[in-house]
Amino acid sequence: MTTTIAPAAVLQTAWREIRLSWLFISADRWTTIFPATCFVTAAVVHARLPPSAAAVTLVGGALYFWLFVYEHTLANQLVGVEEDRVNKPFRPLVTGQSSVRGARLRLNAVRVLFPVYGYCLGVLEWALMWQILSLLQHEYGWGRHWLGRNLYAGVGVVAQLAAAWEMVTAMSPDAWRWIVTLAITVTLLMSVQDLRDITGDRAVHRSTMPLVFGERPTRVFLCAGFALGPLAIHHFLMEPAGPHWWIIATDVVLCGLSLLLSLRVVLARGREQDQRSYRLVEQWYTLALAASVYTLR
């Protein structure tokens, strides 16, 4: 006697998995899915793909970066359940929306599916690079040291944006200029995320910049970094695109956001304010990559 699975049950299970994956990744969408898909769009415009091919490429790219961040968040949240009870009590492993065993099974599945899909898109090397970084971060201790955490974020930008460009067209010097500039910027300034998590990081003995060097010196360093950031963004990203009004307008907006962050990290303190500052960093990153659509064409 054979049994069949009702289509409705299959759809229900699929929808539950999609919804659960969103709960795992939703807090990181502004650093992965949205900005990386913007860079895919920039590559599509640069390569002058026809509309039908462009639509398929963008959907395929968005799915790739969904898996990209899903692997990260599963691995990250599996090793940080106790910390999340303090810092991020809304996450699925804390609320009980996913069991630890279920998350491990999903992580194993994504670790197989992600590189296979990357191979299909022609970006296998970048998918494997991201997986190696994830293993170093979550399984081999990088995530417990401030330097490893910052390198993970910065080198992760290279794995992310190089894949976004190469799934569309061959890498160009201009694309590399964007990737390297943003990777260095993120490496130097990503410790802004640690300001909001000091209590939980101290509880699990994680050595973040605020805990190693002190909160005040970290804030001063980030203040200086965000104040100087507009010079690098202008020189390496905006100026080469020419003196067009829309380039100048974007330059001014990005500069304004960076200077606002420079003030916020020293004046707006406390968990809630630091969380808002980090969200502003995410929006700055997304806006910068949205600008690549018309600066790299």
From TrEMBL:
It is found in: Membrane. It holds the Pfam family UbiA. InterPro entries: Prenyltransferase_related, UbiA_prenyltransferase. It is a multi-pass membrane protein. The chain crosses the membrane at residues 20-45, 52-70, 112-130, 175-192, 220-238, 244-267. Keywords: Membrane, Transmembrane, Transmembrane helix. It comes from the Bacteria. PANTHER family: CHLOROPHYLL SYNTHASE (PTHR42723), CHLOROPHYLL SYNTHASE, CHLOROPLASTIC (PTHR42723:SF1). This is UbiA family prenyltransferase. It comes from Streptomyces achromogenes.
